[in-house]
Design brief:
Layout lengths: L1 H25 L4 H22 L3 H5 L4 H24 L2 H8 L2 H12 L6 H21 L8 H28 L4 H25 L12 H24 L5 H4 L5 H14 L5 H18 L1 H11 L6
Length: about 300
Amino acid sequence: MLKGILLKTLSTLAFTAMALGVRAAASTVPVAEIVFYRSLVALVVLLGWLGLSATLSGAWRTKRPLSHLGRGLSGVAGMFCNFTALALLPFADATAYFYAYPIFVTLIAGLILRESVHVSRWLAVLIGFGGVLVMLSEHLGFGAGFDVKMRFGAGVALIGALCAALSIVQTRRLAQLETTGAIVFYFTCSCAFFGGLMLVATRLFPALGGAYVAPDGRAWTGLIVAGVAGGAAQILATASYRYADASLLAAFDYLAMVWALLASLALYGETPSLAVLVGAAAITVAGLLAVSERRFQKAIKFVIPNKIV
């Protein structure tokens, strides 16, 4: 169990490093280029890992190509949105919005897929949305720090969280039928393909996202860091589930918020506002409540033995 927790913790650090790389490149390079190069570098890292673990041949095999395509589309859409938010918002703010995705997962599962959702998860949705609204109060014009860029960034970040939730729901279904190697491999390939497609489109039609920009040294460093760290994060997160339950490890995802707050302060001198801190705390509590559903049920049954939950 401890090994699983360690691997998961390292994956949150790697995801934070990826986001820092994205932000470094985003100052000069359009998002389409960042998605493409990040995915291309991550694919190289992933292929190396699959080769060393002797699972490369299994990664090619799939019986659900259309499901992988759907997951890839939602995942790459989320990547575009999240990378755009990182370019527009303070680092900690963009990270906090992204971790609203468990709220959307619960809504999709309960309202669209008609899955049975325990009362604790609906409570988590309410708390989480409260946290999002508190953060939005600063970015949508109700606080002193309002500007148009912040408003657009907040909206894009929430769309990114929704896309991430769609990708996660699809991944859960694929996990019942496909190997982990195949899921990660086809997702990374999809991101590289669609990122490249968007890159070509923006070169032909610059209005879609800006003309191609040849990365300078700083941008190349950010792109390589984003790709290597992103690929490593996927590998570490995947490996962690071999040693501990997913319900336990999900709670450690929120360490990324801690790393983001520290990085914002240390690297950019950005001190999150009270609204952002309160909102991020509420989102974290909501996420922890959602992933601790079984413990919540046991507590309810202990306090009210005859209650049906």
